[in-house]
Amino acid sequence: MDERRTVKVSKYLSRHLRHQPERIGLTPDPGGWVEIDTLISAATAHGFRFTREELDHVVATNDKQRFVIEGGRIRASQGHSIQVDLGLPPATPPPYLYHGTVAAHLTAIRAEGLRPMTRHAVHLSADRETATRVGARRGRPVVLAVDSGAMHRDGHVFHVSANGVWLTAAVPPRYLRFPGPR
């Protein structure tokens, strides 16, 4: 399977498992799971064919491990805009986590902190390198440090997804460390 096809199938899966399952007639269970056979049939019926082998390849090779297969079912690991309960237990975060963004968003972030926007949680990275890659998707990256240890001590709840992304409801501005001069 070539890289272009892998990316195309991955984007299709993200759209329909995380954001718009109803567009192809899918109804995920409360945990976001759908039967693989149902997914493949629905995609085919809506003009996008892929095989089980292609699906397995996308899941196995995705650098961010966006999808999980279990017992003949598949779901996205995180990043949903639809209502799902991933069933993730609360977790104690490391002292600092990181968030990649771009300079254009810094004024709002300084005032309001990090908010989930269209997602159900704010996504944080365990290392600066990953946060840099995330921020670079939108332009020149800016990496913010999150004092997750202090947040946790102050009662904020964290979860960690199957692919290592840290999730929390929001990050108030007082827990953010901005690079460089203000």
From TrEMBL:
Pfam families referenced in this protein's UniProt entry, alphabetically: PTS_2-RNA
A GO MF label: tRNA 2'-phosphotransferase activity
GO biological process: tRNA splicing, via endonucleolytic cleavage and ligation
Top-level taxonomic group: Bacteria
Keyword terms, alphabetized: NAD, Transferase
Keyword NAD: yes
Entry's EC annotation: 2.7.1.-
Family the entry assigns: Belongs to the KptA/TPT1 family.
The protein's role, per its UniProt record: Removes the 2'-phosphate from RNA via an intermediate in which the phosphate is ADP-ribosylated by NAD followed by a presumed transesterification to release the RNA and generate ADP-ribose 1''-2''-cyclic phosphate (APPR>P). May function as an ADP-ribosylase.
Entry protein name: Probable RNA 2'-phosphotransferase
